[in-house]
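User: For a reading group we're discussing how well predicted structures match intuition. Take Copia protein. Before you show the prediction, I'll give you the sequence so everyone sees exactly what went in.
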Amino acid sequence: MYNKGEWFEEIKPFSGTVAYASKNDILKVEGIGTIPGTLNGRKIILTDVLYVPELNGQLISVKNIQKTGYSVIFKYNVAVIEKNREKFEFAILNEKRQYASQFVPPKASTYFVNHSAELWHRRMGHSSNKVLKEMGLPVSESPSTFCEECVIAKQSNSPMSKGPRSREHMPMRVVHTDICGPIDPPTREGKKYFVTIVDDFSRFCEMHLLMHKSDILEVFKLFIKQNPDLYKIRCDNAKEYVSGELARYYKKSGVIMDPAPPYSPPLNGVAERELTDIF
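Assistant: Thanks. Here is the predicted 3D structure of Copia protein, as structure tokens, for the group to look at:
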């Protein structure tokens, strides 16, 4: 029985319990599998190993070793395994008068199913139980499982106006835009920002990766040239939009800039909503 899930080379779900004498308690078994390792330089594989997360330490059953045809002999403070005239030391008596196995497990395994479904939920970017199940990972069986981060991330502000808002009747005449970043980690090219441009008519979205926020100028120069019917850009109050060379380029091109007031993301709601879809 082992309590280190990362030592298992492969593991399968298993339901059961074991009695733990030193704790006078019943411990839950959450899996069964194999653990590779070395014993005095020999490569061996422990099979049918129970995964018991609450176990205080590791236990190897002498009885189960004997069931495989080996003999276990205790002598001179050493436990020796023997079969077909082949013998090797298995464990030595330590200062606590316990036989401590000399089996050395791997440092880590490429395949590990953790007993905590919540941990895997967080590791996989707060994925749903359906996604975790499709990946072969543990899922929470409790309907009362609560993830505070998921609740916070899914919250949104109420609309500032509940009345209808007219939409443009032709494509690429009015667009909504927002810039996001820095993102960690960056892309392989070192880009850590991106800008979205959403068409008001079709809700078609373009996303452009940026090395620096100032690169947004070149993005919109090209976008305006490619869309000569564009006449209005809705954005937030970020300085990249409302000041500097980009603002002058809007004016020169005859494009109206429609920035939202400071600290009012709902007024740039189309672009803000697109960011939630991307993330």
